[in-house]
């Protein structure tokens, strides 16, 4: 088993680092998110057009933002998987894909909730919502492919190829969905109008985004640690750690 | 290298270039397909049947059909290509010819490209040729039919090229057909949007050259990138079998 | 002692969370026939697929003529012939068409040579019959006809004796020895009791327990 050992260095190293940093990520993330939400929900000014209903922006935009950047992070990890065959990158993609799916779903859900008072209906084929729906499909495909392949390494590499193909397509999808939207619904009310957003709204929004990022970091570490334990269960360091009653 | 071993080794240059290898792959696929003509007809029948479902299931009114016809035909063509993709590598995988393909001393992405082009010629192109008849049946105007055929002519190769990635990724998996659809349909959305959007623009009298050029750009992008992804996916699937 | 054609150093392969082999090192020298042995499920086919370059879920080093194989891919592919479980024969095509397609990407071969090879495997008169009308043994013979025209020095043959009759087996054994005598090298897996003078063995499934 010792010959086996050198390759495992990095998951073990990551496990230690993650264990040390996770409490900080959790505390800082919660604080920022809370600050952003309280500010945004209670103190930020009303929107002159949408009144109070716009306040869901402080949840909708961070989840949507994170859902998209998670896919890009997965693509970066996919490159690492394909080029350097780093186990940690495999673990990252596997651990993050379901989180991305959930965040995409959350952003769609909050978008629908926002749509009800704004448009008077739960769903409108708005360009952003439609793009997020397609992103949900992309995440679904990634997870389905990962589950369908038994062998871990093959699954990781196949998923990496799929995520990379997806990431090349995301800008094309966004662009074409926007074009399609103007073709079919020339003058819809846009959900967010960032350029005109006043600072009192922007700052709490940025706080929420930052907080959610840190919380995502915490969640990703947690899920990666679990995945590492499952994968490395036959190795000495995991056995030693469990025997020692370690965390 | 050691001299002794060198004496045994054959030089890499054999006089068979990648182009000859591609032609060989292409013509073998075409030949196999023509020995089993029923398989060639199936996607076409499917295409016709799906289109038939819309007047029956939604409305036979001329106005509805004229407005939705291009979209119906595009969706039907997309599904038809999707259905046929499952076979792109599967037979070769089962009988072992795919192993021999991967082991040819040629760039794999070019061989995959040749296979994909053969697939397009055998499924996508016949769909385009059938489109005028179906276009008349859904009451499209002559100009719209022409533009629709043009968008399908540019778009169906993109469908084959992107689909080949999914076919390669799901090779040898259980329920590969459904999985393939899940992976590939989101990637088909831009082509679908521009395919139908171009026809819609044309029917309103707007200029469509720009949109067609954009679809051409999709095709060029798919031609240059997709074969690499398919080849990488094939190697991974081979490794797993 | 000559340089090895193919050298494996500390090969390790894990499949579906099962360790098939580790610390597997061997050299394939020119002029040798090597048999890969071991009970079912010990990874004989996987090893051959790894050596052929079909399976890349392994770690360790593979050297082709002393250099990493990944850097010599073209030369390796050009000089290696792999025949797997699945014969690589399209049932809808005739033996001639199949052979032609299999050789097409490798090197130019005249039809005359191809039909000679088919005749050499006892398929004279079947050149224009679709392979699905041939027996399992005859289909394998179509694939084996490649051995008669192969100029690749390294042969990796997985279960080539399956569905082959006694005279066919003798003919193949002779071919293997001839390839070795010409300075090539052959690696075979088989359940057939292959006994060739001077044959090397690689035995899998021994003492590779999961002890820690």
Automatic annotation (TrEMBL), chain A:
What residues form the membrane-spanning segments? 21-44, 56-84, 91-115, 127-146, 158-177, 201-222
GO CC: one term?
A: plasma membrane
Which controlled-vocabulary keywords does the entry list? Cell inner membrane, Cell membrane, Cytochrome c-type biogenesis, Membrane, Transmembrane, Transmembrane helix, Transport
**How does the record say this protein sits in the membrane?**
Multi-pass membrane protein
Q: Where in the cell is it found?
A: Cell inner membrane; Membrane
Q: Name one GO molecular function term.
A: heme transmembrane transporter activity
The reply to whether Ribonucleoprotein figures as a keyword in the UniProt entry is no
Name the major location.
Answer: membrane
Name-wise, this protein is Heme exporter protein C
Encoding gene, per UniProt annotation: ccmC
UniProtKB/TrEMBL annotation, chain B:
What topology does it adopt in the membrane?
A: Multi-pass membrane protein
Top-rank lineage group of the source organism: Bacteria
Q: Which Gene Ontology MF annotations are present?
A: heme transmembrane transporter activity
Pfam families tied to this protein: CcmB (PF03379)
Does the keyword Cell membrane belong to this entry? yes
User: Mind telling me which InterPro entries this protein's record contains?
Assistant: Cyt_c_biogenesis_CcmB (IPR003544), Cyt_c_CcmB_bac (IPR026031)
| Gene Ontology CC: one annotated term | plasma membrane
Q: Where in the cell is it found?
A: Cell inner membrane
UniProt keywords, alphabetically:
Cell inner membrane, Cell membrane, Cytochrome c-type biogenesis, Membrane, Transmembrane, Transmembrane helix, Transport
> Which stretches are transmembrane?
40-58, 70-89, 109-133, 145-171, 178-202, 208-234
Q: Which PANTHER family match?
A: CYTOCHROME C BIOGENESIS B-RELATED, HEME EXPORTER PROTEIN B
Function, as annotated, reads: Required for the export of heme to the periplasm for the biogenesis of c-type cytochromes.
Give the family per the record: Belongs to the CcmB/CycW/HelB family.
Task: Please identify the protein, giving its name as recorded.
Answer: Heme exporter protein B
Query: Per the UniProt entry, what species is this protein from, by scientific name?
Result: Marinobacter persicus
Organismal lineage: Bacteria, Pseudomonadati, Pseudomonadota, Gammaproteobacteria, Pseudomonadales
Automatic annotation (TrEMBL), chain C:
The ABC transporter domain is annotated at 6-212
**GO MF terms on file?**
ATP binding; ATP hydrolysis activity; transmembrane transporter activity
Matching entries from InterPro entries are given as:
AAA+_ATPase, ABC_transporter-like_ATP-bd, ABC_transporter-like_CS, ABC_transptr_haem_export_CcmA, P-loop_NTPase
Does the UniProt entry include the keyword Ubl conjugation? no
Q: Which domain of life is it from?
A: Bacteria
Which Pfam families does the annotation name?
Answer: ABC_tran
One biological process term in Gene Ontology: cytochrome complex assembly
What's in the keyword line of the UniProt record? ATP-binding, Cytochrome c-type biogenesis, Membrane, Nucleotide-binding, Translocase, Transport
PANTHER family from the UniProt entry: ABC TRANSPORTER I FAMILY MEMBER 1
Protein name (Swiss-Prot/TrEMBL):
Heme exporter protein A
């Amino acid at each position: 088993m010792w010959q086996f050992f050198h390759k495992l260095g990095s998951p073990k190293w990551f496990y230690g680092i993650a264990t040390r940093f996770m409490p900080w990520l959790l505390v800082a993330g919660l604080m920022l998110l809370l600050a952003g939400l309280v500010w945004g929900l209670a103190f930020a000014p009303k929107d002159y057009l949408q009144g109070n209903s716009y306040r869901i922006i402080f949840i909708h935009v961070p989840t949507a933002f994170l859902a998209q950047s998670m896919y890009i992070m997965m693509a970066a990890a996919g490159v690492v998987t394909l080029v350097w065959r780093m186990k940690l990158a495999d673990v990252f993609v596997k651990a993050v894909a379901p989180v991305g799916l959930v965040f995409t779903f959350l952003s769609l859900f909050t978008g629908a909730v926002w749509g009800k008072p704004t448009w008077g209906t739960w769903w409108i084929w708005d360009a952003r919502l439609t793009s997020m729906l397609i992103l949900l499909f992309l995440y679904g495909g990634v997870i389905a492919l990962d589950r369908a392949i038994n062998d871990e390494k093959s699954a990781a590499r196949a998923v990496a190829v799929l995520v990379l193909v997806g990431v090349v397509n995301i800008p094309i999808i966004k662009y074409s969905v926007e074009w399609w939207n103007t073709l079919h619904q020339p003058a819809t009310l846009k959900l967010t109008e960032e350029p005109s957003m006043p600072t009192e709204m922007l700052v709490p929004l940025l706080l929420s985004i930052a907080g959610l990022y840190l919380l995502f970091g915490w969640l990703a570490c947690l899920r990666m640690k679990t995945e590492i334990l499952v994968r490395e269960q036959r190795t000495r360091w995991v056995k030693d750690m469990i025997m020692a009653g370690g965390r | 290298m050691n001299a002794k071993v060198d004496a045994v080794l054959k030089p890499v240059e054999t006089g068979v270039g990648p182009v000859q290898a591609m032609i060989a792959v292409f013509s073998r696929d075409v030949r196999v397909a023509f020995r089993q003509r029923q398989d060639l007809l199936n996607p076409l029948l499917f295409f016709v049947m799906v289109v038939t479902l819309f007047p029956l299931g939604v409305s036979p009114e001329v106005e509805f059909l004229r407005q939705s016809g291009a979209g119906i035909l595009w969706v039907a063509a997309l599904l038809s290509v999707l259905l046929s993709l499952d076979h792109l590598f599967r037979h070769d995988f089962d009988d072992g010819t795919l192993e021999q393909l991967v082991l040819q001393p040629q760039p794999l992405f070019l061989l995959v490209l040749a296979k994909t082009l053969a697939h397009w010629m055998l499924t996508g192109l016949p769909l385009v040729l059938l489109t005028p008849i179906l276009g008349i049946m859904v009451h499209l105007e002559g100009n719209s039919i022409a533009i629709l055929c043009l968008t399908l002519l540019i778009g169906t190769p993109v469908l084959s090229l992107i689909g080949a990635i999914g076919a390669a990724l799901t090779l040898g998996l259980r329920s590969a057909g459904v999985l393939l659809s899940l992976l590939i349909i989101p990637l088909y959305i831009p082509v679908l949007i521009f395919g139908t959007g171009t026809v819609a623009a044309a029917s309103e009298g707007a200029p469509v050259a720009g949109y067609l050029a954009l679809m051409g750009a999709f095709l060029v992008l798919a031609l240059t990138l997709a074969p690499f992804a398919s080849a990488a996916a094939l190697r991974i699937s081979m490794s797993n079998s | 002692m000559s340089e090895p054609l193919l050298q494996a150093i500390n090969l390790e392969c894990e499949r579906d969370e099962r360790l098939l082999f580790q610390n597997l090192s061997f050299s394939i020298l020119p002029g040798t026939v090597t048999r890969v042995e071991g009970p079912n499920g010990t990874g004989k086919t996987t090893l051959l697929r790894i050596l052929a370059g079909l399976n890349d879920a392994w770690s360790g080093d593979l050297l082709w003529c002393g250099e990493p194989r990944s850097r010599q891919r073209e030369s390796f592919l050009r000089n290696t012939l792999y025949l797997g479980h699945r014969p690589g024969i399209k049932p809808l095509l005739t033996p001639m068409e199949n052979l032609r397609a299999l050789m097409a990407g490798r090197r130019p071969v005249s039809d005359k040579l191809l039909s000679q090879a088919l005749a050499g495997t006892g398929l004279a008169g079947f050149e224009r019959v679709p392979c699905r009308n041939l027996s399992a043994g005859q289909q394998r013979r179509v694939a084996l006809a490649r051995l008669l025209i192969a100029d690749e020095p390294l042969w990796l043959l997985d279960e080539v004796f399956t569905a082959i009759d006694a005279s066919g087996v003798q003919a193949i054994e002779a071919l293997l020895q001839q390839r070795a005598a010409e300075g090539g090298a052959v690696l075979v897996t088989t359940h057939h009791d292959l006994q060739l003078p001077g044959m090397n063995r690689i035995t899998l499934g021994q003492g590779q327990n999961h002890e820690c």
